[in-house]
Design brief:
- 39% of the residues lie in helices and 14% in strands.
- It is built from twelve helices and 14 strands.
Length: 395
């Protein structure tokens, strides 16, 4: 059986260069970066080299990079850190209704602490209306958090406009850029966010490591206490092998972005065309490859009405094809995707959604394999659904 991995938005296979970097650091630079002896100093030098490399890839300054365990910790550090640091000025936070649960659940936790959160609606493509943001900002608003690109649909938010609005009103802005980093051009000298979240395993780096960009002067309280690591922002011995590997992977992702982005965009277009030509009644959730709406090059979300998403996922898995019904952090959740529901998609259609997400390792042959297998699986599952009508509608 040929195995095809199309769940790269959940996690990516680590690239060879990053894996070799990890091995070299584990072997040759095992010292604690906080130690003052030669082993520690060498490790510290490597840590700062990785910090500078990541900063350069993002268009930031090295001292603006704080290392974390991944995107979830970065999101929590940004939202809670700003909220706690600025609670005397105000307790109002604005986010969108389509954020990753790392942001949404963090906001809900802050609500239990007495903060007030406004959840902005989105349009049919899943984009926030900047005018809606403008109307929602109040005198006590301290933070806006809107993701750069959605993890389920790939749609890119109008973040530059959002930043302008927030800055005009003196409100800090955070963005969860976990899905976007390494896939679309990003320069933090131009994109005026105050905080930005990164996760290494989304761009073919290792799992369990990430970073938070914190623009100079941004008030932020640490989540944890226990040492002076990361300028007091994140205690604990740093994960140097993974940090060095993440830096290597990000540097390569940025260097190869145009080539890999073009390749994934064409594979995404071919997948969409094959599905559209061979399966009736589909619905694309978010932009399709022919839409002018900005979107990541590697994510395609499609609903197959009459074919329950979980059933189709398992059927594809039996054929060796890995996809997702939405966010990996929500796997096992029987409820429809909150992202698709926020876009106005009916629950019965949202439950039939499948996310195909490409990586740099995917090939044309793999896409053709999916196009070959998928129609028969959809037909079989639809034949077991009594409410499905063959013309592509429900009774």
């Amino acid at each position: 059986m040929r195995r095809v991995y199309l769940d790269n938005a959940a996690t990516t296979p680590i690239r060879a260069e990053a894996l070799e970097e990890m091995r070299a650091v584990y072997r040759d630079h095992f010292g604690n970066t906080a130690s003052v002896h030669l082993f520690g100093r060498e490790a510290r030098s490597l840590l700062e080299k990785a910090r500078a490399e990541i900063a350069s890839s993002l268009g930031a300054d090295p001292e603006e990079i704080v290392f974390t365990s991944g995107g979830t910790e970065s999101d929590n550090m940004a939202l809670k850190g700003v909220a706690w640091a600025m609670r005397d000025r105000g307790r109002h936070i604005i986010t969108s209704s389509v954020e990753h649960h790392a942001v949404l659940h963090c906001c809900q936790a802050l609500e239990r602490e007495g903060f007030e959160v406004t959840y902005l609606p989105v349009d049919g493509h899943g984009r926030v209306d900047p005018e809606e943001l403008k109307r929602s900002i109040r005198k006590d608003t301290i933070l806006v958090s809107v993701m750069l690109a959605n993890n389920e649909t790939g749609v890119i938010q109008p973040l530059e406009e959002i930043c302008l609005i927030a800055r005009e009103r003196g409100v800090l802005i955070h963005t969860d850029a976990v899905q976007a980093v390494g896939k679309i051009p990003l320069n933090l000298k131009r994109l005026k966010v105050d905080l930005l979240s990164v996760s290494g395993h989304k761009f073919h780096g290792p799992k369990g490591v990430g970073a938070l960009f914190v623009r100079k002067g941004t008030p932020l309280e640490p989540l944890m206490h226990g040492g002076g690591h990361e300028r007091g922002m994140r205690p604990g011995t740093v994960n140097l092998p993974s940090i060095a590997a993440m830096a290597r992977s990000l540097s390569l992702a940025v260097k190869e972005m145009e080539e890999n982005g073009g390749k994934m965009r064409e594979l995404r277009r071919r997948l969409f065309q094959g599905i559209r030509e061979r399966i009736d009644g589909i619905r694309v959730n978010g932009p399709n490859p022919d839409d002018p709406v900005p979107c990541l090059p590697n994510i395609l979300n499609v609903s197959f009405p009459g074919a329950e998403g979980e059933a189709l996922l398992m059927a594809l898995d039996m054929e060796g094809i890995a996809v997702s019904t939405g966010s990996a952090c929500s796997s096992g959740d029987v409820e429809p995707s909150h992202v698709l529901l926020a876009m106005g998609i009916p629950p019965e259609i949202a439950r039939c959604g499948i996310r195909f997400s490409l990586g740099i390792q995917n090939t044309e042959e793999e896409i053709e394999r999916v196009i070959e297998v998928l129609p028969g699986l959809v037909e079989r599952i639809r034949s077991l659904a009594p409410r499905w009508v063959r013309n592509g509608t429900s009774e």
